[in-house]
Design goal:
The complex is a heterodimer of chains A (185) and B (418). Chain A has a domain of 98 residues: Alpha-Beta Plaits, CATH 3.30.70.3270. Helices cover 19% and strands 15% of the residues of chain A. Chain A has a 3-stranded antiparallel β-sheet with strand order 3-4-6. In chain A, strands 2-5 form a two-stranded antiparallel sheet. The radius of gyration of chain A is 29 Å and the shape is elongated. The two termini of chain A are 49 Å apart. Chain B has a single domain, classed as Cytochrome-c3 Hydrogenase, chain B (Orthogonal Bundle). With 418 residues, chain B is an alpha+beta fold. Classes of the chains: A alpha+beta (185), B alpha+beta (418). At the A-B interface, strand 1, helix 1, helix 2 and helix 3 of A face helix 2, helix 5, helix 6, helix 7 and helix 8 of B.
Chain lengths: 185, 418
């Protein structure tokens, strides 16, 4: 039946076709009993869910923990021992960004003014989070692990200009820690 | 004014003959007048920003014209300005319910131009994520469509299972939507520890949940009244209009690209193509519902047979070197810089790769001029093509059935407008 309808029968899936269940035919007496019984069956299905308990999470009081790979707001990092910034201002993150939301202006380190571990450092490092699409390519591109995607996702603000994150904001510890899951949880 | 009076319309709707005393009221004949209704673009039943200009005669739809373009973002043009790997996260945002499919179509087309072999493990991981995405897309469709028909609990149930799938996406790729997990040559990262266990839990639960949806909907009298026998379209017309996917299969044509032109190892999995018989709205519902079970079967097989090996092609000219090599190998660092700044060059040529998305044939056309940016990227989006069948489906039926038909059409406006 199914293949007879094909105007151009060049290809046939053979045995791999299964016909779906047809809708029950309309009919006065049967319809009436069915309407009654099927409504009961539907009610049984919904009421049976009561024992499963609620799945609602009381956000924002209760937050969903994120997975280790979750890509939230970016973080810039320092070396723990020396306190120097890991970023050397190479602009690879800006080159990798599909949304063009990263701006890096590099400057030379001097012996009196040493900011990063390399020859140069990022004098300006800005991420426009209102443009960012959180693809994480900056993290992939960075050869020094200087920028990583953090776990914060509550990023709304009242002003668009407040969403341009500067280097200091990205280097700082987040005010509130987002709960994190273990990898195999 | 044209009259449909006394004619039996396609859907078996017969308009009552007018009584003569209507004219005594001094107005036009009540049901003779054509009424043009603006439906949308912001309406919960249009599933996005779709605008429909509906011409009504009484309650019967005489003509419907879809107006699109409200979420046009120029993604195809944007893609011409970006290197190949940067196109992926942008392109994913077109059909926002089937992001893995968008990425898959683009990556496959690029891989064909590069004549690149995708490792088996990557192919299997792709299949797992594609089918999860298909279930997810169908769940969103089922939930919102049931909402249009007046069933609210289904919406909560579907979104509960969708949440489980999005958790799995977050686990493997770091993002719940628009994951950029697929890359040219494979997938960007292997699945994490614990993913398989969590996925198996989900696969155990999902068929039982789908059974519950069926218990509520399959023979529910309201659903039957709204879907059974409403707005059918013959297979010939659907084919002539270029309709593909579950809509075509509901009319009895067993056309599924996963079987017809297998890609990404689909030929190794045992699954069936659910087809309908009448091609009405009920069949459209039943076909998609049955596809959820088939997708679960495919994921189970892919997970059981998941081969060991690399998750992305070892070709250093295309894929980024592993991170630990950056600190030790100068060559790796050079490749890394080259790939991130310029990207890989693709030999000149054209490729058109169709895949089976939750809505039908999703295809990506890529033309390369030999540089590291595509010269043209075009997506054949199934929602766009399927939408043109709407007018023929609903002509002559009640406006309430049009709502059900738009729901069963499952258009995603992000994909239509691009």
């Amino acid at each position: 039946m199914a293949e007879a309808q094909l105007p151009v029968s060049v290809w046939s899936p053979g045995e791999d076709v299964v016909e779906v269940r047809r809708a029950p035919a309309p009919g006065a007496a049967r319809s009436f009993t069915r309407a009654f019984l099927e409504t009961l069956r539907g009610l049984k299905t919904t009421f049976a869910r009561v024992i499963e308990g609620p799945v609602t999470i009381q956000y924002p009081e209760e937050k969903v923990p994120v997975y280790p790979r979750f890509r939230g707001r970016h973080r810039l990092h320092r070396f723990e021992e020396s306190g120097l910034e890991k970023c050397v201002g190479c602009s690879l993150c800006a080159a990798a960004c599909p949304a063009d939301c990263i701006r890096v202006v590099a400057a030379e380190n001097t012996p009196e003014h040493r900011v990063s571990a390399g020859e140069r450092y990022a004098a300006v490092y800005e991420i426009n989070l209102s443009r960012c699409i959180f693809c994480g390519y900056c993290e992939v591109a960075c050869p020094f692990d200087a920028i990583t995607m953090g776990h914060d996702y509550e990023l709304s603000d009242y002003d668009r200009s407040d969403l341009i994150f500067t280097k200091e904001m990205l280097l700082a510890e987040p005010l509130e820690r987002t709960p994190l899951r273990r990898e195999d949880e | 004014m044209s009259s449909l009076q006394g004619r039996t319309l396609a859907q078996g709707v017969t308009l009552a003959p007018l009584s003569e005393d209507v004219e005594e009221w001094g107005g036009a004949r009540e049901h003779d007048e054509l009424f043009e209704l603006n439906f949308g673009p912001h309406h919960p039943a249009t599933h996005g920003v779709l605008r429909l200009i509906v011409t009504l005669q009484g309650e019967v739809v005489v003509e419907v014209k879809p107006i699109i373009g409200y979420v046009h973002t120029g993604i195809e043009k944007t893609a011409e300005d970006k290197s190949y790997w940067k196109v992926i996260p942008v392109l994913e945002r077109m059909d926002y319910l089937s992001y893995y499919f968008n990425a898959m179509a683009f990556c496959s087309a690029t891989e064909r131009l590069l004549e690149l072999e995708v490792p088996e493990r990557a192919q299997y991981l792709r299949v797992i994520h594609l089918e999860l995405n298909r279930i997810m897309s169908h769940l969103v469709w089922l939930g919102t469509s049931a909402l249009d028909l007046g069933a609210i609990s289904i919406f909560w149930y579907c979104f509960r299972e969708r949440e489980a799938i999005l958790d799995l996406f977050e686990m493997s790729s770091g993002q719940r939507m628009h994951t950029r997990y697929f890359q040219v040559g494979g997938v960007i990262e292997d699945i994490p520890r614990g993913f398989e266990r969590k996925l198996r839990q989900f696969l155990k639960v999902m068929p039982a949940r789908a059974d519950q949806y069926a218990d509520i909907l399959n023979a529910n009298e309201i659903v039957l009244q709204r879907l059974r026998g409403t707005c059918p379209l013959s297979a010939e017309r659907l084919l002539a209009l270029g309709v593909s996917g579950p809509l075509l299969r509901a009319a009895g044509v067993p056309w599924d690209l996963r079987k017809a032109t297998p890609y990404s190892s689909y030929e190794r999995f045992d699954f069936k193509i659910p087809v309908g018989t009448a091609g009405d709205n009920y069949d459209r519902y039943a076909v998609r519902h049955a596809e959820i079970y088939e997708s679960v079967k495919i994921i189970e097989q892919a997970l059981d047979g998941l081969p060991e090996g690399p998750h992305i092609t070892p070709d250093r000219k295309v894929s980024l070197p592993p991170r630990h090599e950056l600190a030790t190998s100068m060559e790796a660092l050079i490749h890394h810089f080259k790939l991130v700044t310029e990207g890989f060059r693709v030999p000149a040529g054209e490729a058109y790769v169709p895949i089976e998305s939750p809505r039908g044939e999703l295809a990506c056309f890529v033309r390369s001029d030999g540089s590291s940016k595509p010269a043209r990227v075009h997506m054949r989006d199934p929602s766009f093509v399927n939408l043109q069948a709407l007018s023929e489906m609903v002509r002559g039926s009640y406006i309430a059935d049009m709502i059900a038909t738009v729901a069963m059409l499952d258009p995603v406006l992000g994909g239509i407008d691009r």
